[in-house]
Amino acid sequence: MKTISCLFLDIGGVLLSNGWGHDFRQRAAERFHLDIAEMEKRHKLFFVVYEEGEISLDKYLDWVVFYVGRDFTPSEFRDYMYSLTTPNLEMIAFFKSLKLQYGLKIVAVSNEARELNDYRIHEFKLNNLIDFFVSSCYVHIRKPDVRIFQLAIDMTVVPKDEIVYIDDVQLFVDVAADLGIKSICHKDYLSTSIALADLGLIVT
After folding, report:
1. Which of 130, 152, 162, 196 has the CB geometry, 3.0–4.6 Å to 134, for a possible disulfide?
2. CA 120 – CA 19 distance, rounded (Å)
3. What is the mean pLDDT of residues 32-41?
4. Considering 83, 118, 134, which residue would you say is the last residue of a domain?
5. What is the pTM of this model?
């Protein structure tokens, strides 16, 4: 079996909760008494360019939430968005142990909007685990575009057969696998740890 020397990790859904998924938008709409249908319509039009780092969070909120007067401020809404993130402490500890035991290089390959990404990295100290971040907001490409995976490979300078990619979205896993990257669809700690053990990565 080829030795695994690098992990590509998604952030939302693997290490942390999703950054700004549908459930969180629903909760925000209820909290701030927003028209969720209108919010979702506007979100769909603007989120790709926001997630690719082409517009700021302030501009995104201008068009999606603050296109009319509100009885709350953008700062209050941003703080609520940030507060929704929770860590998967079990997975973070697991990957830290694997990294220490096997000397792994760990790279984030994620669709993340800049302000949320920056907050999440620093709030949960992900830079203590991850060597560098190939985030959509930094590289202006988002999954499932194969170019983001190829860019991560090029930046890592590791042969594809030494990389394992872990994501909770099956489509993204399939795209990475089609490129020749060993890939695992994350569902929970147990299934992912077993899949990695099958590849020779076992915490002892």
Report:
1. 152
2. 8
3. 97
4. 83
5. 0.94
